[in-house]
C-alpha cells in the first residue's frame, strides 16, 4: 500500500517537474546567457577600445584562427589580498544583516500568523506596503533621518537627551540598518507562509504531554519552521552580499562591500575583465551554499517533513 | 465520604463555559468513576468538545469546578494535570519519529533516558507498533497514526485518558476492529477513559456509561441500555437509535397503566404508568422499531397495543427487513423485523394491510 501511494506521488512529482521546466527555460535564456557573457569578459584582457576588452575568438582571413582566454584576472583577484578581505567583509555584513532580520522578522511573522484572518491581511499589507515606493528613494530617506542634522538628532537634541549629534550615518551601523529595513519583508513573508500553516493542535498536544508554552515553541514550532527560516535567510542573504545601493548611500569610506568594488572596477577603473571576474567569484561564493541548503532541505523532505 | 460507593475520579460541579455571548457548556455536573469507559455523546456544537478541553485544561471554566482524584483542577495548567488527551487529528509531531513522539511526554517529565527507552518500547509493543518505531508520522497509515497517538497519550500513565472522536478518521472496517482493541486496552490498563463522540453506535459499543449532551447541558446519564430503552426525554429518544414518536394526552389512569389518546392514531394506547402522569397531561408516546411485530392477522390484544396500517415502503437487508407502515391518519411507523424463517417469499409485501403490535411494557412514555 505504501508502494502504491509513493507511486502516485512519483507521478505527481514528474508532472510537477514538467510544469517547472518552462520557467527553467526562461531562466536559461535570461539568466544563463548574461552569465556566459560575463564569464567570457572575465577571461579577456582590458584594452582601450569599444568594448574595452579583447574578444574571445580571433578571426583571420581564413576564418577562426585562435582562442584568446586568460586567467590573469582571477590570478590577480587571488594574489591581491584586498579582494579576499572585501569578500569576507561582504559575507560578514550580509550574515549579520540576515541574522538581525531573522531576530526581528521571526517574532513579527509569528505574531501575524497568530492573528485572526482578517487582521492578518491588514498586517501583511503593512509589511508589503514599502514596496510601493522606490527602493532608492527609501534608502535616501534614511539619510534625511540619520544625518547629523537629521530628524532623529534634531529631535533628541531638542528634548535634551543629547548635546552633540550622534554619528549614525556613513558607517557600518547605517548599512546594517539599511539592510534590515530594506530586506525585512523578504524574511517575514516566507516565515509567515510557514508559520501560518502550523497546526495549533500540535502545541496543545505538547502542553498536554507536559511542555510549558516556551518548551512547546522550542520543541515544535521552531523545528517545524526551519524551512521558513532557511527560505527567509536565503532571500535576505543573497541580495545583501552583492548589495550596492545601501553601502554606497549609507556606508562610510571604510565600509567594505563587494558591490561597491564591482561598481568601481566597472565605472571608475573601466576594467571590465577584472570586474567580471569579481562578479563570477561572487556568484560561485553564493551558489555553493545555496545548493547545499537545497540538498539539505530535499533530504529533510524525503525523511518525512 | 460515603464508603459504600467508590469515590468518583472526576467530579464536574456546575461547570459553565461561555465564549463571548455563547454558552458552550451550561451548568454541567457529572461524576466519572474510576476505571470506567465513559462516553460523552452529542451532535456537533453540543459542547462535548469544550467539556473535554475543560477536563484537559485548555479552557478554564467561566464558573464551577472540576476535581480530578479529589484535587481541584481550576488553576492547574494542562502540563501539570494527570490527564492526557488523544486528539481527533492525532496531532502527532511531524518532525519526530514514532518513538520520539511517544517519548516526548516522558522527556518533559525528566524520566531518565534508559527508563524512557524501556517504557516507550513497552508502549509500542502494547499497540503493536514496535516495527515502526523509527518512522515519521507521514509514512504511517491512518490506523497506525491512531495507535501512535494512543501510545503517546498513555505512556505517561495518566489517571484519566481523554479521547476526542477516536475512531472518526478511520474507515468503517478498521473502526470496528479498533473499537474492540480500545475496549481491550482499557480493560487491560484499568485507566479511566472518557470518549467524546457524535456517533451513537460508537458510544454504545465502547462505553460502560454514556452522557448524552444537548445544547451545552447533560440530557441523560446512564448505561447504554438505560439510554436506549429508557430515554429520559424526547431528545435522547430520537438522538440515540431510531424511534417512533407520537404526541398525545392521558385519558385514564389505573392499575399501574395509563391510557393515552394520540391525535395521529385511531385507537388509544396503553403504557405503564410512572406515577407522575394524571389524566389530562400532555405526553409523548415512543416505541422502537424492533419492538413492533408486523402481521397480516389481528394479534391478540392482551397486554399489547395494536394499530392498523398499509405497508408503503420496505427494505430487505437479508438478516432483517425494514418496513414503513402508513396509518389511515397519514402517520408513519418504522418497523424492523428479523427474518427468522428461511423463505424466498417475504411475510409481508408492499401495499398490504397489516397489523402492528407491541407490548405495553415496551411503550416509552415521555414528557412532551
Can you give a write-up of this model?
- The complex is a heterodimer of chains A (305) and B (368).
- Chain A is mainly alpha-helical and 305 residues long.
- Chain A has a domain at 80-270: Orthogonal Bundle (MetI-like fold).
- Chain A has helices at residues 2-42, 72-79, 81-113, 117-128, 135-146, 151-158, 172-196, 200-208, 213-224, 226-241, 245-250, 258-268, 272-302; strands spanning 57-60, 63-67.
- The longest helix of chain A has 41 residues, at 2-42.
- The radius of gyration of chain A is 25 Å and the shape is flat.
- The two termini of chain A are 20 Å apart.
- Chain B has two domains: 10-239, P-loop containing nucleotide triphosphate hydrolases (Rossmann fold, 3-Layer(aba) Sandwich), CATH 3.40.50.300; 244-367, Beta Barrel (OB fold (Dihydrolipoamide Acetyltransferase, E2P)), CATH 2.40.50.100.
- In chain B, 23% of the residues lie in helices and 35% in strands.
- Chain B is built from eight helices and 20 strands.
- In chain B, α2 (98-108) packs across α3, α2 (98-108) runs parallel beside α4 (142-154) and α3 packs across α4.
- The longest helix of chain B has 18 residues, at 172-189.
- In chain B, 38% of the residues are buried.
- Classes of the chains: A mainly alpha (305), B alpha+beta (368).
Report the oligomer.
Answer: heterodimer
Radius of gyration of chain B over all CA atoms, rounded: 25 Å
Q: What is the name of the CATH class of the largest domain in chain B? A: Alpha Beta
Name given to the CATH homologous superfamily of the largest domain in chain B: P-loop containing nucleotide triphosphate hydrolases
Architecture (CATH level 2) name of the domain at 80-270 in chain A: Orthogonal Bundle
CATH topology of the largest domain in chain B: Rossmann fold
| Tally of individual domains of chain B | 2
From the 3D coordinates, which CATH architecture of the largest domain in chain B would you assign? 3-Layer(aba) Sandwich
CATH superfamily (homologous) name of the domain at 80-270 in chain A? MetI-like
Mean pLDDT of chain B: 91
Cα shape of chain B: elongated
Radius of gyration of chain A: 25 Å
Shape estimate of chain A: flat
Strand order of the largest sheet of chain A: 1-2
Strand order of the largest sheet of chain B: 6-7-8-3-9-10
Q: What pattern of helices and strands is seen along the backbone of chain B?
A: EEEHEEEHHHEHEHEEHHEEEEEEEEEE
Q: Helix- and strand-based class of chain B?
A: alpha+beta
Largest sheet of chain B: 6 strands, mixed
Count of extended strands of chain A: 2
- Give the strand content of chain B: 35-45%
